[in-house]
């Protein structure tokens, strides 16, 4: 049996009386695309932020490559984070830097973690070529369209060649054509680099194309789990609600 | 805010140092404030001399003008006015920039990429304001005295050489040292409050506006409090 590269057990998180996560658990296996679907405000983004230590969970364990992130010190956590790529919902490009500087930023302190003889310039160009934006290298983020920004953000997430990639709503706010391009890009990256991906979305098309397995997050727990085909044929009203078009 | 300040002192001495970003911030805050500080200082010296002149003439004490202006500007008016101007220009800028980075998840992105955003964004900015403000104040004071000298030269036919001789005769170390020391604290306050408000902003664009506004308001108050403490301590140690 494959070993999970990422494991969450009984994760709980509340904001005052608002109990967002009520014992959520998951396992992400090597080379797998796991999609988490849930309504807006269901705690998907909170869960992914707890996962990388941007938010502290109230209880539960989070293990990435056998490291319990709650028990890690800041330096150890920073080292572990370089093995995870994170695509933010709003791209989160540094708007005072050019595209080149955005991609160089993660390499500043972690250049030696990539076992390659390539120069920084070559790594940046390669990452941009992977997302089809080599020509935009000297542009500022404000000069890019929403879809281009998302692709640059994806290139930045990949620059340290991580084995795990977390996608927070990768297609939100994009038109259907650009969404398809981003989804294709995600598939291409997974096939090229053999990454394990955790994808948070409420885009059914995205889930259908990209998922190997899905978890529905309802009321802060894993409400249902299975492949896209299994869940889309479910007769449970709460599950069916996700797949209504 | 206390925890934020303690964290600054903890992180400022630990490696890796962000030299490049520190220099960039010094350039942004120092060089780009030159014009504003220069114009403010020039008009301050000009107006101060013009307004004081009739009163001094009335008492036959116009020859005291260079001494009075230099001591007032170097000890008190220059540092406080320029610090308030910088609180508006630099403090609000830091609050808005970090606030905007916070709400657009840029700070989170930095953290996730294995870079300590506190060290990269906060430590460099606080250091830059602490280092740059004394320089801006010295420059502003010099320009203010030059403005005053122009008025004295035109109205009182006092030569520039005589004016500045009188200025340097009047100024003592007990005027310059405390003023310079307190300007470091003004700079620290501008950086600290601006960074704190921006780094902890929330509620989207409204939060960014609030962070920027609060940075100016709280820094301005803090500048007066620091000034009061500085004058109190100067009185004890230098018997002004």
Account of the protein in words:
The complex is a heterodimer of chains A (245) and B (240). Chain A is globular. The N and C termini of chain A lie far apart (36 Å). Helices cover 36% and strands 27% of the residues of chain A. Chain A is built from ten helices and ten strands. Chain A is an alpha/beta fold. Chain B is an all-alpha fold. Chain B has one domain. Helices cover 86% and strands 0% of the residues of chain B. Chain B has helices at residues 2-12, 19-30, 34-58, 65-103, 106-112, 117-155, 160-170, 173-199, 204-238. In chain B, helix 4 (65-103) packs across helix 7 and helix 4 packs parallel to helix 8 (173-199). Chain B starts with a helix and ends with a helix. The relative contact order of chain B is 0.17.
Biggest sheet of chain A, strands in spatial order?
Answer: 6-7-8-3-9-10
Q: Which sheet architecture does the biggest sheet of chain A show? A: 6 strands, mixed
The tally of helices of chain A reads 10
The low-confidence runs of chain B, each spanning 5 or more residues with pLDDT under 50, are: none
Quick one: overall form of chain A? globular
Protein structure class of chain B: mainly alpha
Can you summarize this structure?
Chain A has 245 residues and is an alpha/beta fold. Chain A has 10 helices and 10 strands. Chain B has one domain (19-238).
């Amino acid at each position: 049996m494959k070993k999970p590269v990422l494991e969450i057990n009984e994760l709980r998180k509340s904001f005052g009386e608002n109990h967002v996560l009520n014992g959520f658990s998951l396992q992400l296996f090597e080379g797998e695309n796991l999609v988490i679907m849930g309504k807006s405000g269901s705690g998907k983004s909170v869960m992914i932020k707890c996962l990388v230590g941007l938010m502290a969970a109230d209880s539960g364990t989070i293990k990435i490559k056998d490291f319990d992130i709650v028990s890690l010190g800041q330096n150890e956590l920073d080292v572990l984070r370089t093995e995870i790529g994170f695509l933010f919902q709003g791209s989160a490009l540094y708007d005072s830097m050019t595209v080149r500087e955005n991609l160089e930023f993660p390499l500043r302190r972690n250049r030696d973690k990539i076992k390659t003889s390539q120069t920084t310039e070559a790594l940046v160009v390669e990452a941009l070529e992977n997302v089809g934006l080599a020509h935009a290298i000297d542009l500022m983020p404000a000069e890019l369209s929403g879809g281009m920004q998302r692709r640059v953000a994806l290139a930045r997430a990949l620059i340290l060649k991580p084995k795990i990639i977390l996608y927070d709503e990768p297609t939100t706010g994009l038109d259907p054509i650009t969404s398809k391009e981003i989804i294709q890009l995600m598939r291409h990256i997974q096939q090229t680099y053999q990454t394990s991906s955790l994808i948070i979305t409420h885009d059914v098309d995205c889930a259908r194309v990209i998922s190997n397995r899905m978890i529905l997050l309802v009321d802060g727990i894993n409400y249902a789990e299975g492949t896209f085909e299994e869940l889309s044929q479910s007769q449970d009203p709460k599950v069916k609600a996700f797949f209504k078009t | 805010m206390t925890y934020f300040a303690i964290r600054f002192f903890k992180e400022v001495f630990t490696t890796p140092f962000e030299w490049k970003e520190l220099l960039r911030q010094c350039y942004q805050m120092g060089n780009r404030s030159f014009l504003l500080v220069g114009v403010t200082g020039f008009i301050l010296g000009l107006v101060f001399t013009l307004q004081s002149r009739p009163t001094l003439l009335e008492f036959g004490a116009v020859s005291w003008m260079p001494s009075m202006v230099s001591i007032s500007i170097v000890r008190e008016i220059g540092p406080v006015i320029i610090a308030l101007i910088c609180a508006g220009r630099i403090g609000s800028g830091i609050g808005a920039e970090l606030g905007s980075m916070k709400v657009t998840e840029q700070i989170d992105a930095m953290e996730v990429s294995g870079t300590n955003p506190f060290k990269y964004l906060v430590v460099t900015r606080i250091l830059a304001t602490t280092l740059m403000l004394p320089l801006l104040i010295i420059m502003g004071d010099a320009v203010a005295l030059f403005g005053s000298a122009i008025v004295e030269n035109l109205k009182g036919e006092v030569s520039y050489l005589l004016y500045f001789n009188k200025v340097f005769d009047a100024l003592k170390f007990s005027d310059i040292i405390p003023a310079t020391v307190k300007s470091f604290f003004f700079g620290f306050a501008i950086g600290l409050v601006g960074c704190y408000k921006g780094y902890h902003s929330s509620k989207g664009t409204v939060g960014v506006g609030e962070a920027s506004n609060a940075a100016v308001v709280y820094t301005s108050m803090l500048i007066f409090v620091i000034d009061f403490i500085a004058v109190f301590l100067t009185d004890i140690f230098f018997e002004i």
